[in-house]
Amino acid sequence: MPDRQPIALVVDDEPDICNLISMTLQRMNVRADIAMSVAEARRRLAEKQYHFCLTDMRLPDGDGLQIVETIQDLPADRALPVAVITAHGNMDSAITALKLGAFDFVSKPVNLERLRSLVQLALRLTEGRFLESQEFPALFQGQSEAIQTLRAQIEKIARSDAPVHITGEPGSGKELAARCIHEQGPRSNRAFITLHCESIAAEQLERHLFGDEYDRGQLHAANGGTLYLDEVNALPQELQTKLLNTLQEESFSNSATGEKIKLDIRIITGSRKRLADEARRGAFRSDLYYRLNVIELAIPPLRQRQEDIPLLTRNLLRRISAESRGATPKASQDAIQALQAYPFPGNLRELENILERAVTLGESSTLYASDLIIPAASPIPGDQIGDSVLPGNAKPISDVVLQLPAYGHQTGYPGQFATSEFETLDDFLQSIEREAIESALNETGWNRTAAAEKLGISFRSLRYRLKKLGLESE
Ligand SMILES: Nc1ncnc2c1ncn2[C@@H]1O[C@H](COP(=O)(O)OP(=O)(O)OP(=O)(O)O)[C@@H](O)[C@H]1O
């Protein structure tokens, strides 16, 4: 069936690499068309529908990022996944490519095993299986605009393999969002593993993550699938370093046995605190932050979507009653009003608890406001992400979400910024970059080598950025 054979577009001007990739693809029954320049690649993309594209970063008439951008601009029905080949150790350009919409990257010298798993993932992405989201049960319930936007974002994020960082108040649905991304993505038939970093003693975390002689650990368990690290900011510094190395090297060793294991996971992290703030004040490695925060997803607090409360209450009452094998009570209008008036610092989990208590204690078939035990005054903690803690005229983070292109990503950052304060996305990103660089320089007494290390970028790249931002005249 030659016409059903997948076709990849390989963009590279180095004949040796083209040969190596074509031969590897051939063995996987994938045909490769070669383009030697940005212009040739654009022409081919305009002429033919490819299953995926693999592009080198350095091209004679431009760079791989231009190819990634061209692909993002294709109409939705012609969308295809694109991955980049980066120079060895150049994480900067890999992350830039991911932010622009590349689904993955491979660095030189090209490791064939890594290339094969990238190709397999690309083929799974084009299969379209994950696109059948209409059939996907709406785990994320709600009809509010905020939830509809979130569901659409999750659907798009699921199409890539880039790291995602999810922010949101306690109980707002971060873990559920991570699970939805996994379930709708190409790794859905593999494991989804959660590690609650805050609830495990710091000295036990390493064992849980990297294993010991009795247990192979959560990284191993998640291999091939998705690892969700909840409250990732609770990882002790040494473990942050170890995790960073693991992600960079794409392999890890079992803590006790020393066995080296190749890593192929999607990593999703979550935190209540803004990780950018934690990185800024030195509590979280900024290089790891940049590595994990390629795509950011913000879950709005329940009080910003009060119109969802009737539906959520109805569904929760049904579930709770089914679990206790009782009849489902109806919530009265005054009960719904009482719930809608409450700010829910504990979000969905608190709503579940309030309803569970009411069902256990209630006896009638209708639940009234008087049956609900709702705390009178509920402080909304200041270090959490929510409408109450944003400075000045900044918008809640959920409003800062940018439009996601097909196979693309959101590029919002959890800073004190709202995009509305800036004229263009570039201005917005530059202000974040400037702030991160200035803070690294301040923390290192303007030692540029140390600052570059702290930021996880090369010295040359820091100098380039300093120049670009006008922080260095030379
Ligand atoms: N939109 C939603 N529809 C239905 N159930 C939801 C929704 N959002 C959250 N939940 C439910 O609320 C509970 C809390 O969600 P989850 O554990 O994902 O929150 P979290 O933000 O990860 O919490 P924590 O910060 O405590 O780790 C779960 O039982 C989850 O299934």
From TrEMBL:
Keywords: ATP-binding, DNA-binding, Nucleotide-binding, Phosphoprotein, Transcription, Transcription regulation. Residues 140-360 form the Sigma-54 factor interaction domain. Residues 7-123 form the Response regulatory domain. CDD domains: AAA. It comes from the Bacteria. The keyword Phosphoprotein applies. InterPro entries: AAA+_ATPase (IPR003593), AAA_lid_NorR (IPR058031), CheY-like_superfamily (IPR011006), Homeodomain-like_sf (IPR009057), HTH_Fis (IPR002197), P-loop_NTPase (IPR027417), Sig_transdc_resp-reg_receiver (IPR001789), Sigma_54_int (IPR002078). SMART domains: AAA, REC. It holds the Pfam family Response_reg. The modification 4-aspartylphosphate is found at residue 56. PANTHER family: RESPONSE REGULATOR PROTEIN PILR, TRANSCRIPTIONAL REGULATORY PROTEIN. This is Sigma-54-dependent Fis family transcriptional regulator. It comes from Microbulbifer harenosus.
